[in-house]
Amino acid sequence: MDVFEAEPLPAASPLWNHDQVLVSPHTAALNAAEDRLIAELFAANATRLLDGHSMLNRVDTVEFY
Question: Looking at the whole model, is its pTM more than 0.70?
């Protein structure tokens, strides 16, 4: 999900920990070059996650950035 009724998504929202929800940044206004960068980052993070490494550009759920 990338759009919520209240933004930023409140810290107490159950969506942060829901097993069937992935909270992602809203990217509708991006251009093709940015889409490519997002796809590359996603692929890199998927590989890192499968290899047991921490992901790049991870959001700090305590600081919310």
Answer: no
